[in-house]
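Continuing the series of single-chain predictions for the mutant panel. This is the parent chain; the variants come on the following pages.
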Amino acid sequence: MLTSANPGNAALCLSVSQPNEVMQGTPTCGPFSEGGIFTKANGQTVQGRGPFGAQFDAVTYQKTVGNAAYNALEISLRHTSKALEIMAGYTYSKSFDDSSGLAEPVNPAGPGLTKALSAFDMRHNFVVNYRYNLAVDQWVRRQNRWTEGWSLAGVTRFGSGLPVTLYNNNDTSLLGTIPNGINNNGLDTPNVAPGHLNLNTNPRDGKPAFNTTLFSLPSLGQIGNTRRRFFYGPGIENSDVALQ
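Parent structure:
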């Protein structure tokens, strides 16, 4: 719980995961009343809606703001012969943005503060499709409707994993940018400590995908020091084959 010097908001309640920061025996304040002054258990006060101030306590403002940058190297190869048709493509790319869609708000103090990997960023992507005509009639040395027209076709894809999105829905920053139904993710992010992420890209071994002990909730009034996305999940290995 948090406490507020604004008595008009004392009937509301905001729940956070830092019980050691609660001022015991005082009224509580809650969602969308971040314009008040919050008092920690140690007596320290934190002004909500920083750096804008209490005048934004009852103001809701939404605007389409953001920048994105995408750079890529694309290579394609195509071969056609009497027996074989094959086409392969490879893309090496990187995409950054301030927000990957309406579900992600940008920092109102500066959109560039939320710059991170795009949710759809895929560093490596290789796709090959092929069709090979099988000479069954030559193999069996006879030709009829059962030996003609056979082919082997398929599509194979290898790709990097998508970035892992990190968010903190406790509104510890007191900016009031918590999810509201339109924006599914909040602006707040957790803190991350130095250390090895121990990334595990094998989804079948039962081990954690990454080292979660490095992450924690920031102090009240803080937005968190980690970016929305800075590492990747498991990649893609998929192959479809058809005998026709």
